[in-house]
Structures are given as structure tokens and as C-alpha cells.
Amino acid sequence: MGRAPRIAIIGGGIGGLAAALALERRGAEVVVCEQSPVHSEIGAGLNLTPNAVKAFRALGIEDQIEAIGSGSEFMAIRSWRSGRFISRTRRGDFPKVFGAPNLTVHRADLLNVLRGALKTTDIRLGMRCVAVDGGDRSAAVRFADGSTLEADIVVGADGIHSAVRKSLFGADRPRFTGCICWRGMAPAAAVPRDINIADGTMWMGPHGHVVHYPVRRGELVNIVAHFDSDAWTGESWTHECDVAEVTTAYAAWNPALTRLYPLSQRWYKWALYDRDPLERWTKGRATLLGDSAHAMLPYLGQGAGMAIEDGCVLAAMIGRHGEDLDTALSAYERLRVPRTKATVLGSRARAKENHLASPWARLKRDMKFALRERFGGGDTTAFKVGWLYEYDVGREMR
Of 213, 261, 389, 391, which residue is the catalytic one? Predict the structure, then answer.
């Protein structure tokens, strides 16, 4: 039996830590290099659809994820002004239909669970990658402080602005989608009792939509508002802004939504950019994972889920092919590119339907939702994404 492979993961976010956990449990020697000097506590919510929860099951931490998560009986889609229900998906049926629940979590809580599950992984903070060389037998990383690191495989899990991707395949050309996002977090105890915050809710209107859902076991309400505008083009999602921007943009929307906005002490905004999916993720002994490989719009709620699945499959292929790491990387890419590409393109298609400006186009869309609910057959999801939810990455890991 040969030595355990040494894997360097660039990026200590959800995808990077999930990959580290999957690799650690396969016996790999894992180093995670995170550019932030401290562990991130960004106050953002995440939606974990059943496929993501099943990936955590495969990693052996489903119970911990359920302990920090919030479930809801329904996912409601409502009309922007009247508040009428366009669709109500019974999420309570998901464990029976798809084999796992839908959970919403606080990003910081999820990162804490992942870090707590790691036993042997070496996490190094303040390590900003500036270049990667994917050689034939190993790969090397160069950091901003001038230090270097060599590993059998280097994994770029460094997000949408991936330095690893740029180093391997050149600079990408992000395309501004014409959409701005705002996000806030409101304490549930401050929400008026006549507003339903127990269920996940999506408000659809002209040129925009808003989602809100409970996180941290229902203690907080995560709010993410999307609006067609070119007034802001910054891609960083940690730029703080005034709540007046949000209340002005949605002034004509239903009060059951707009009364939530002032309850968040802080609001952040960022511009949404789109990227075409890559056909190749691997060069030599360096590969990509998560947003660095397939940055996607948030409209199918799959960004985190796809990254976690990536990490599970990568570890499974390395475990399956032993010392033949080149074959392992080829198998990983072959298994993951088609599914993630379909998700990127599906999220892009949803963006258009969510923001229809024409009242007639919205009526036609809403009638389609009603027909889906009544005659949809086995797929009980509002957007017909059962093909995403039914997938179980655990099968690839056996």
C-alpha cells in the first residue's frame, strides 16, 4: 500500500471544508489554505435542498446539520402586490419523496459544524493564493507572502473570483446580469405576528423577486431581495448599504414583505454576474471545485449543494483509484461537469421567469404553476427540479 496522497485545498469555505472532510475520511493528508486571516462569520443564510442534505449524510454529519437547520412545511410563492399564493410546495413531503428534508441554515453555523468535524486537516489562515502550477506528478501553489506549497493534488475551492481558475485557464469574462441583490437578517422575535415567517417564501413581481426563510432554528429570518437595475455593479457581497435603498425599490410591494426590511440592523448589496460553465476543470494535478468551477446564479438554490457534492465525488474517486491520481481526476471531472453545467444553465433560465415585467406574461407563468401543482405527477417541486433533489451522492461514494 502506497502513502496517503497529500491534497492542498485552496479556500476554506463550505466547498473546501466539505472536500477536506470527505478526503480526510478516505485517509488523505489534507491542507486547507484560506486567504482570510480569521474564520468568516458572514451573516448569510443558505438553502440546503435534499441532495445537499444527502451529501452531508454521506459525510456522516447529517444529524449536526439538522440540529442547526430550520425546516418548513411549505415553500410559498406569492404575488408581489396582492400577496395571493401563486404556488405552495409541501416541503414536509420531501423526506418521503426525495429521501431527505429541505433545510435552511446560517452560513456561519454550517462552517462551524464542518470545522468541528475535521480531525487531522491542517487549516492555515491568511494564505492568499496568487498562482498554481499543475504539473504532471504534483502541483505547486504560490502565496502572496512568497511562500510555496507542493501537493499531489491542488484543489481550487476559492470561489467565484478563483485565483486557481485564473492561473490554470486564464481570466474569465463575467457578464453583468443587470440584477442587484440586497440581503438582511431580521430577528424572528421582532417580526409582527401576522406575518408568516415559519415557511420559506418567495415574492415574485415585475423586475424582481424576494425570498425569506428561517435560519438558526427559527431565531432569525434571512432576507434576499433581487431587483433589475444597473445602479450598482460591484460584485463583492460584503458591501454595506442603507435600508432606504431596499424600501425604496420595493415601496409598492405587499406590506407583509416590506415591513420585514427595517427589522434588519444591517443590509448588504452586490451585483449579480453570470459566467459560462467550464468544460474542463483539471490541468495536470490541479483541479477546481464549487464556484471556482461552476459559479451559478442563486435561483435554484444549488450553489452550496453542488460544491458539497463536488467534494464528496472528488474524495470518492481518489479513494477508488488509489495511486492513479490522474485517472481519479479524470473520473471526477467526467462525473461532475454534466450535472453542474445543467444546474448553471437551469439557474440562468429561471432568472428570466422570476422577473417578468409584463402582467400578461406573469399571468401565463402563474397559471403554469397552478397546473403544475394540480397535475404535476411525481415531481412536487414548484420549478420542476426533482431531478436535482433526487440525486444521492452517497451512491458515488460506495
Answer: 213
User: Across the beta sheet with 239-241, what order do the strands follow?
Assistant: 85-90, 74-79, 200-205, 208-215, 220-228, 175-187, 267-274, 239-241
Q: What is the pLDDT of residues 124-180, one digit of tens each?
A: 999 999 999 998 999 999 999 999 999 999 999 999 889 999 999 999 878 888 899
Q: Would you call 213 a catalytic residue per the annotation?
A: yes
Contact of 210 with 223, CB cutoff 8 Å: yes
Q: Is 74 exposed, middle or buried (0-12, 13-18, 19+ CB in 10 A)?
A: middle
CA angle, 251 as apex, 250 and 256 as ends, to 5°? Answer: 80
- Domains of the chain, with CATH numbers? 6-173+276-397 (3.50.50.60)
Q: Which residue has the cell 451529501?
A: 55
**Does the reported pTM lie above 0.85?**
yes
- CB-facing half-sphere around the CA of 238: CA atoms within 13 A: 4
Condensed to tens digits (0 to 9), the pLDDT of residues 274-325 reads: 888 899 999 999 999 999 999 999 999 999 999 999 999 999 999 999 999 9
